[in-house]
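Quarterly update from the structural biology core.
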Amino acid sequence: MTTHATTVRRTGFRTAVAALALLTPALLAGCASGPDTASGGADTSAADARSASAQLGSCLRDAGFDVDDPDLSEVVVIAAPKGSDPDAYEKAFSTCAATLPGEFGEIGQAPDADEAAALQKSGLKVAQCVRDKGFSDFADPVGGEFAPGRTGPEGEAEALAFDACWTEFGPDASGDDE
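Predicted structure, tokenized:
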């Protein structure tokens, strides 16, 4: 199961942005230059990410959520599965993430005030972008959360617009500073 930014909408935005904000240092550490170990340096980091991904996926499934293992070797949005209780998922995600080794254990933590402000700022840019793409009633995030999206064919078009805007203006977009 691949989770896209469109599933972030209202329910998983806080978890997703916390995962994005706090997973980045772990990923950058894996990319840092330095002597490779005999076991393969970057290969070890990839193996660590695969292991943490499997552990997180297993824990979430044990908690009753139908998810595949997320790919923690990349900056990804990890959002509540469709049809699940977002609050229960957020709680399970935080609990499961806290059991992960090393930096991966930080992905369930809430961002600090500066990170939250930056995330809200990027969320506002995403919302404006979606409105500019023809969804004039697309709401700004409130408290870091987007409102539920449309359903049906119009919902698919909105989701595509949201994906494009998320890529351009979301928290992991480059050149976001003004």
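The CA atoms of residues 126 and 166 lie 6 Å apart.
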